[in-house]
Structure formats: structure tokens, C-alpha cells
Amino acid sequence: MSENQAQHPTQNAAASHAALARKYRPQVFAELIGQDPLVRTLRNAFASGRIAQAYMLTGVRGVGKTTTARLVARALNYEGPHGEGATIDFDEEGVHCRAILEGRHLDVIEMDAASHTGIDDIRDLIDSAHYKPNTARYKVYIIDEVHMLSKQAFNGLLKTLEEPPEHVKFIFATTEVRKVPVTVLSRCQRFDLKRIEIETLTDHLARVAKEEGTEAEPAALALIARAGEGSVRDALSILDRAIAFGSGRIEVGTVRELLGLADRGRIFDLLETVLKGDAGGALSALGQLNRDGAEPGQVITDLADAVHAVTVAKAAGPGSIDPAAGEAERGRIEDLAKRLSMPCWRAPGRCCSRGMTRCAQAPVRSPPPTWFWSGWPMWATCRRPAKLPASLTASARRRSGPRAPRRSGPTCLLLTCHRLRRLRLRRLLRSRRDARARGAQHHGRARPVRCASGHRKRKSGPAQRSR
């Protein structure tokens, strides 16, 4: 180590650090997680020699579209140390593998369609496609975000895409496949890369954390995987932040503080408080969550997730609960699913959706009562709110003996709503009936009209003519 390196160890560490999403990018198809149908199809295609002239890779961000494109380009141009040909099962690094994976191979051209959208760029691509590859077997064109190409660029690509030279392969990647013309899609073999399951992504994060020498709690990794929303890149970015935030140790509390999440137990406490009709308690709990660092919009989103989890458990049974949920969370979900009937969860779901929209549009990010409690009018303004908490807190009394036939709180709420609807309908019908009666009376009265000379005269109505 030189004297300069010894004097500035921090600068050397910062310069050598790479993002986890780049550092742990898959190098072989076996490392590509969550895309087993794609890997199986490509393996059979390469084994039988049925290699398409163009591939279309679609999916959300961070699921491996660009990585898969580079791996396919590596498989097409693979030359093993023992003379192996094109295959996706390469155990050893070939002649062109390193240059392709680093994006510097002359015969593997990567183009960003977001910055090269015009017909001139496609014309240059078509002109270069007629030349033989320099050193590799195929000349592979990887066009990322292909939906950004203009209409003229797509039209200029059609002929070459349908009948390309034998040494040319196209690989397209896009997140907006609906914006790609059908004429282009029909000339490609399409693969839809799906979101990564939470369990699979959690296991991947555990392996990465172990490689980085970081102690991580499984519950904390599950939170990171859930926040990644099926994207490996997003999850690894959050993991990188969590490692720096926790000084080498990842815990549930630090992850919640980092992401601005609320404790799931407190979310279910808030949900029960709201369902009981306790407006003051709900607002106090929401304000406390906000002071503890939880984002108001994220709290409403967590409430919507809790309502959805309970609804799914109520409809499909406890086996449908998210496997990533902890034991305490599973217990709360099963308990709420047993206590309340299915109609009771319709209004909370709609109100949570309305609350998320209002929170996104609110000029002030703090949770004021005006927009939060307005999302729960059924529970706050019902005639008999005491019935609902009785149904939530009388589980022990129900087990002790036979229950007298009575209507539960949610049933009373629903009956109240039905009565209000019937009352509005009666008023509407009465007003229409009165309007028709007034119109008939007006039609029966004599009304003044003008004759040909311009003088006014009385014209009798139907009632006078009948007399």
C-alpha cells in the first residue's frame, strides 16, 4: 500500500464501493431468480436450435430485463475453452463473456431508445447490420426502452426485423409493452418477466447480506423485500441504505425508521380504533405515528393493506395470509376476520382508497382530521356506534355461553344505510309525483294565446272543451 493510499483510506473505500444492484448482477442464468419459465424456454430453444431472430422482454423495473438481454447475448456468442457453441449452460467463462457482461463488446451493441428515438438512429443501425460481426458469432442489438422510439423509427425497423441477416439478432426491453406497435410485437418472441415473490426476494437479500458480512434479521429483510414491490434492484438499493444506516447490522426498528413505516401492531390498533368509531383515539394514534416518523400516506397505505389482508383471510381462509407476515400479525388478521362479517369490510376499503388519493393531493403533508376522518363517514356518523365496539370486544363473553339472538353493530349500520336509501327514494318518488300533478294542473288551466291580429284571447284547455 502506498503512502497516499494509507493517508486517505476513506476516499479509496468510497471509490471502490459499487452499488449492490451492480455488484450482484447475475452472471449466469442460474443466478437469475424468479424467472424459471423464461430460463426453461431458452434452454429448450438453444438445445433444439430454435433460436428466434428477435426477443421482446417486458416487465416492471428491476426484474432483470437488461441482465437477461446480456445473458442471451453471451449465450449466443459463447465460445468455451473446449470449443463449445451457443448454450445457456456455461460453467466456465468464454472468450467474449467478460466483454459482453461489461457492455464493451464490439458485436453486442446496446442502444438506449430514450435518447435515440429518431429514424436517423434506426437508419444507422440498419446500415451497420449488413456487415459481418468482427469477432463473435452473432451481431446482437440490445435496444432498451424500445417503446420510446418514434412511429417512423418503428416503421423503418419492420423490414429488417422481419427478415434480418443470418448473423443479426435483436433483443428489445421495455416497461411499456402496450406502446409498442403490434407489427413489431408479431415479429418478436415475447417474454413477460414477472415480479419476484417476497419469499424468493427475501432469500436473495439474505445471501447478499451474508456476502457483505452483515447481520440481518429475517423480519427486517422481509420488510425490505415488501418495500421493493417485486423489484430486485429496488430491494438491493434499500438493503444498501439499511447497511449504511444500521452500521453493519439490519434490524426491524432501523428498517422501519429508514423507510418511514409504522409498526404493524400499531397499524392494527389504529384499524380497530377506527372501526370502533373512536374518532378522538384514531386521530391521536395517527398523530403519534406521524410524530414517530411515519409518513401519513404510508400509514393510510398500511391501513389499506391491513383491510385487504383481513378481507382475503375472511374470504379464502387463514391459508391465504401472506407468508411474510409475522406470527403476531397473522393472529391479528385471523382475529379480525372471525369477529366481523364480510359486508363490514367494504366501506373501510373504499375509504382507505379515498384517503390515499386525498393524502397525495393534500397541500400539507401532516394528517389533519378534515381529510382523514372524512374517509370513514359510515363508522363516524352512524346512529348507534356503540354496537360495533361491542362486537369487537365481546369474544370472551361469546365463548362463555349461548348468545342471545341480537343484531350486531355492523348489521345495525347496514340497516341504517338501507333505511336512509329507502327514505331518499321515497322522497324522490314523492317529488316526482308532485311535479307530475302540478304539470297536469297547469295543463288543465286556460292559458292566454295570441290570435292572427295580435290581440290576446283566451284558449280553453282540455277540461273546458270537454264541458
From TrEMBL:
Domain AAA+ ATPase: 51-197
Biased composition (Basic residues): 396-406, 438-467
SMART domains: AAA (SM00382)
Recorded catalytic activity of this chain's protein: DNA(n) + a 2'-deoxyribonucleoside 5'-triphosphate = DNA(n+1) + diphosphate
EC number of this enzyme: 2.7.7.7
Protein keywords: ATP-binding, DNA replication, DNA-directed DNA polymerase, Metal-binding, Nucleotide-binding, Nucleotidyltransferase, Transferase, Zinc
InterPro entries in alphabetical order: AAA+_ATPase, DNA_pol3_clamp-load_cplx_C, DNA_pol_III_gamma-3, DNA_pol_III_sug/sutau_N, DNA_Rep/Repair_Clamp_Loader, HLD_clamp_pol_III_gamma_tau, P-loop_NTPase
Signal peptide: none
Principal EC category: transferase
GO annotations of cellular component type: DNA polymerase III complex
Region (Disordered): 390-410, 434-467
Annotated Pfam families: DNA_pol3_delta2 (PF13177), DNA_pol3_gamma3 (PF12169), DNAX_ATPase_lid (PF22608)
One GO biological process term: DNA-templated DNA replication
NCBIfam families: dnaX_nterm
Classification via PANTHER family: PROTEIN STICHEL-LIKE 2, REPLICATION FACTOR C / DNA POLYMERASE III GAMMA-TAU SUBUNIT
Binding partners and assembly: DNA polymerase III contains a core (composed of alpha, epsilon and theta chains) that associates with a tau subunit. This core dimerizes to form the POLIII' complex. PolIII' associates with the gamma complex (composed of gamma, delta, delta', psi and chi chains) and with the beta chain to form the complete DNA polymerase III complex.
Function of the molecule: DNA polymerase III is a complex, multichain enzyme responsible for most of the replicative synthesis in bacteria. This DNA polymerase also exhibits 3' to 5' exonuclease activity.
Family to which the UniProt record says this protein belongs: Belongs to the DnaX/STICHEL family.
Identification of the protein by name: DNA polymerase III subunit gamma/tau
Organism, scientific name: Methyloceanibacter methanicus
Gene: dnaX
